[in-house]
Design brief:
The chain has 10 helices and 12 strands. By secondary structure, it is an alpha/beta fold.
Length: about 300
């Protein structure tokens, strides 16, 4: 069951330029897509233009494989919730929280897990300013923390849950919490000492280091996990974004789509455009669902 207060978490999204994109014919609103079209909703936390840039190649590929026109429908968190309730998309590619809601509350079927890297798994990292005096998680109590909005996975929920299990209630006032516009901003704010602690997804620190944005020692990782993983972690690992079929989709269409997703190779144009390695069979959701229930996101 969907927590009744969850919808309020999705009201403060960034303004999009969907109107201009629709006018240019680059995307479609759910109400304007022809009934014969297959509507693929894609979460657009980086904006509608980024959805078009990253996922048009996938939509074109699936159109060929299904022999049906697949139309992208960029969506923010609030629009995704509305689409789930009103069944205005056929398939959905979205982050773990919304995927769990879609499956648990709206009977969506998980088709595949996005493999951005490392077999479709990622986690959360807790970082701190080297001068903040934070060596252990318990040192975070009373500090100023920055992360993404409360619907975020790798930029909030994973770390907030991990801290809760370690006796620090982020949502209960044990820290002063601030919301950032991007995860890059989180790292820069922590480095500058504007805040003490930051929440980011795994892989971001390594990417910023490769680009020369940060140097070794600019931030410290708090209680690095001992789990074998090629990127630094603080939390446990969770599945990445999910590709879901909405309730009522024909089984033969789902089967064709699943097979097409599994054939996407890391060196294909589709994978390169989306900056992924492809898709893998659905990862288990038990740990994800448990975390969301303990965080009050699912009933």
């Amino acid at each position: 069951m969907l927590n009744s207060s969850l919808c309020s978490l999705f009201r403060a999204g960034c303004r999009s330029i969907a109107g201009a994109l629709m006018a240019a014919g680059l995307i479609a609103a759910t109400s304007s897509v022809a009934k014969a079209d297959v509507r693929l909703g894609v979460i657009s936390h980086l904006g509608d233009l980024m959805v078009i840039k990253q996922w048009t190649a996938l939509a074109n590929y699936l159109s060929r494989e299904l022999n049906e026109k697949v139309v992208l429908v960029p969506m923010n968190n609030k629009k995704t919730m509305a689409a789930l309730k009103n069944k205005t998309v056929d398939f959905l590619l979205t982050q773990p929280l919304l995927a769990a809601i879609a499956e648990q509350t709206f009977d969506a079927k998980v088709v595949a897990t996005r493999n951005k890297s490392h077999d479709g798994l990622f986690g959360g990292v807790v970082i701190a300013n080297p001068g903040a005096g934070i060596a252990r998680l318990r040192d975070i109590r009373g500090k100023t923390v920055i992360g993404m909005g409360r619907a975020g996975a790798g930029g909030y929920l994973f770390q907030a849950h991990h801290l809760l299990k370690n006796g620090i209630d982020v949502e209960g006032g044990d820290v002063t919490y601030r919301i950032a516009k991007s995860q890059k901003d989180i790292v820069l704010a922590v480095r500058a000492g504007i805040v003490d602690v930051g929440f980011v997804r795994s892989g971001l620190l390594e990417a910023l280091h490769r680009k020369g944005v940060i140097a070794a020692g600019d931030v410290v990782v708090v209680e690095r996990s001992r789990v074998e993983f090629p990127q630094v972690l603080t939390t446990r690992l969770y599945p990445d974004w999910f590709f879901l079929a909405m309730d009522g989709q024909p089984e033969d269409r789902i089967a064709k789509l699943r097979a097409a997703l599994m054939r996407i190779a890391p060196d294909s144009d589709v994978a390169k455009a989306a900056k992924i390695e492809g898709f893998v069979p659905p990862k288990p959701r038990d740990g994800l669902v448990t975390m969301l229930k303990e965080m009050g996101r699912l009933g």
